[in-house]
């Protein structure tokens, strides 16, 4: 299963040497067809705040974000939950025994071995920000220790015996690591052989926003201009067979967008076969330019060279995209966009623009919007997708999805 997420800070709840498998371990779940536009009626409701992340452990969905209470779809009592909870994928029943007390927001989740889940975020400051929990009871796994210092954990990817950790931290345990680390998935011990370091954070310390991995490649995006001193403006590919930065560079994200967004990449996801990935961005309208502000763009994972260009670009015309999920049949994108196919719009619908409020799907080959248009209340936007065999989970800060009430969590079933 694959989880994609990107963290946009919320001011308050009111405003809301690793062993690698031979098959893709972190790429998107393949789905032969586009999912239904009619959400299932069983997903629970998150009653305040925002949902930032999902993970699937067995048949249990773990949900992370910044919230205080949830309620099952069938009704009943409001259940207090401190930024994380779990529910059954098929019935929607909230797990009563899983109620960890996290004192800060959750930004990233990843399924762990032996019915456990990794949780990253801004909790437990100044030293935690990363824990591994038993799904059965929410207790920490005592054998795992990888406290992050100096910042938050905003992205997690497990690949075999390795857990890749991204954020804006400066140290994991006793090991200095700037924004990116590889730790042992069982113990949390930092891998001394993996030292790729993001640099030059564009008016701030380097930060990894999103990651995805498949076989021998780790794709990262974020607030950086270099990886290990090599020019990689906001996006890079790491060769996991060598532990070094791959011969893959694009200048697509070198141009500046609006001054408010010195770094504007956000979510990314790999295709199920790992051959390509899609990056989504914020940044402001880019009418009449070649800038990739407020866009989704496809890149080929195994391309080589110093001037790699996107295979296609789809512009919203001035609205942010934060999350993306690639299934083979579709590229799902979410944010607070009003349109897709809008290269000539600047907070307007330009020629050819199609209305896709808050959520949409793009053809993976042509880069054009598909007919799928369930709509959602826009708000801040979609912050998390999780693709599973039975459908597409959506996490956000709003309560209307597919013209129905689904507070902050919903799922479109596979067809």
Task: Describe what you observe in this structure.
- The chain is mostly beta strands and 415 residues long.
- It has a single domain (2-394), classed as Methylamine Dehydrogenase, Chain H (7 Propeller).
- The chain contains no helices and 37 strands.
- The chain has a 4-stranded antiparallel beta sheet, with no helix packed on it. Strands 18-19-22-23 form a 4-stranded antiparallel beta sheet, with no helix packed on it.
- The chain is globular.
Break the fold down into its secondary structure elements and pairings.
Layout: E1 2-5, E2 45-46, E3 50-57, E4 60-66, E5 69-71, E6 79-80, E7 84-88, E8 106-112, E9 116-121, E10 130-134, E11 148-149, E12 153-159, E13 162-167, E14 171-172, E15 175-176, E16 180-184, E17 198-199, E18 207-214, E19 217-223, E20 226-227, E21 230-231, E22 235-239, E23 244-245, E24 265-270, E25 276-281, E26 295-300, E27 312-315, E28 321-326, E29 331-335, E30 339-340, E31 354-355, E32 359-362, E33 384-388, E34 391-395, E35 400-401, E36 404-405, E37 409-413
Antiparallel strand pairs: 1-33, 2-5, 3-4, 4-7, 5-6, 8-9, 9-10, 11-14, 12-13, 13-16, 14-15, 17-20, 18-19, 19-22, 20-21, 22-23, 24-25, 25-26, 26-27, 28-29, 29-32, 30-31, 33-34, 34-37, 35-36
């Amino acid at each position: 299963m694959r989880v994609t997420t990107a963290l946009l800070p919320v001011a308050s709840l009111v405003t809301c040497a690793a062993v690698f498998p031979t098959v893709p371990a972190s790429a998107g779940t393949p789905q032969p067809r586009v999912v239904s536009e009619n959400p299932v009626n069983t997903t629970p409701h998150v009653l305040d705040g925002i949902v930032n992340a999902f993970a699937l452990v067995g048949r249990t969905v773990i949900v992370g974000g910044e919230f205080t209470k949830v309620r099952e779809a069938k009704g009943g009592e409001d259940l207090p939950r401190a930024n994380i909870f779990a529910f059954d994928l098929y019935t929607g029943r909230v797990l009563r025994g899983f109620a960890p007390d996290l004192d800060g927001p959750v930004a990233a989740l990843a399924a762990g071995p032996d019915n456990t889940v990794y949780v990253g975020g801004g909790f437990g400051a100044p030293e935690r920000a990363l824990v591994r929990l038993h799904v059965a009871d929410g207790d920490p796994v005592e054998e795992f220790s990888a406290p992050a210092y100096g910042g938050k954990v905003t992205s997690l990817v497990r690949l075999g015996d390795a857990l890749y950790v991204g954020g804006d931290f400066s140290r994991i345990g006793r090991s200095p690591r700037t924004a990116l680390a590889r730790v042992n998935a069982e113990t949390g011990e930092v891998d001394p052989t993996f030292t790729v370091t993001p640099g030059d954070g564009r008016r701030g310390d380097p930060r990894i926003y999103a990651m995805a991995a498949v076989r021998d490649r780790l794709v990262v995006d974020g607030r950086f201009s270099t990886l290990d001193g090599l020019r990689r403006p906001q996006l890079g590919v790491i060769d996991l067979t060598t532990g070094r930065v791959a011969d893959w560079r694009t200048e697509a994200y070198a141009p500046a967008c609006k001054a408010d967004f010195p770094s504007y990449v956000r979510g990314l996801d790999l295709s199920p076969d790992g051959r390509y990935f899609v990056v989504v961005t914020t940044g402001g309208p880019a009418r009449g330019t070649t800038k990739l502000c407020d866009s989704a763009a496809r890149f080929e994972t195994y391309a080589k060279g110093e001037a790699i260009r996107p295979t296609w670009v789809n512009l919203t015309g001035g609205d942010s995209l934060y999350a993306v999920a690639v299934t083979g049949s579709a590229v799902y994108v979410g944010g607070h966009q009003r349109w897709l196919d809008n290269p000539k719009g600047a907070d307007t619908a330009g020629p050819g623009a199609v209305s896709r409020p808050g959520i949409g799907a793009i053809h993976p080959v042509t880069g054009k919007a598909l007919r799928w248009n369930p709509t959602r209340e826009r708000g801040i936007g979609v912050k998390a997708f999780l693709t599973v065999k039975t459908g597409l989970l959506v996490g956000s800060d709003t309560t209307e999805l597919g013209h129905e009430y689904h507070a902050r969590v919903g799922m479109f079933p596979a067809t």
